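B., you asked whether I could sanity-check this one before it goes into the benchmark set. Here's the sequence:
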Amino acid sequence: MGWMRERDLTSDIGSFVAIGDSFTEGLNDPLPDGTFRGWSDRVAEALATRVPGFRYANLAVRGKLLAEVMAEQLPRAIDMAPDLVSVAAGGNDILRGTDVDTLAAPFDVGVARLQAAGSRVVIFTGFDPRVFPVIRLLRGRIAAYNMHLRGIADERGADLVDLWSMRVLADARMWSQDRLHLSPEGHRRVALRTCEILGVSEPEDWRVPLASARPAMAPRPTAAWLTARRQDLLWARQFAVPWVNRRLHGTSSGDDLPPKRPDLAPMKTLAL
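And here's what the prediction gave me:
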């Protein structure tokens, strides 16, 4: 399955703590009980099938800014002394207009603190948002932030999951209706990519494109344009307006929400 490390490092990961925002919390990858699974849980499940006594915690909470992740979640992760910590944060800051150059320094400090505590660290670049109107206006700023993250990974020797280069994520079916969070299949592909970076062998390849949809009849250009605009308006009403309203009132979707897995504990296993 593509590029793999020369030796299996699975046995080196007996515990895993994930920190970050909604991406790592697992929005919109629902389980039957209404909770969210997500790429991080999927990676933990893959490790749990291989490592006896494996333990996992997920401290990520939707809506968190980078400073909040570093102040609230990172110290707790250090106290747990896990073998592996994943860090994915900064996307909410970019949505709010924060200068990406100012985000790099605290991110770098956080990675250094985790490594000094003895944890292996894996970090994630931002996605390429080119497939969606409006959000793609942030493409340049996300790309600049990604360059900082690549530099941090290179200098610190951290593992890097480059989401920007995952061309399979350009398929809109990898995304949920809000255009900000992955669909269950998108989370599965990110989990497979993360396993590859960590040296956890999986039989499936995250690069394989989804099967082509079979349209009953290709719409005329005018009809297609009108359909797309109606979808944009629906998206604005359902997702953009509530987001703006929260900003105006100084609230967050994650206010008062606890982490879904606050303690290192054994992980139930499901198929990735």
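One thing to flag: The chain has one domain: 10-208+221-266. Otherwise nothing jumped out at me.
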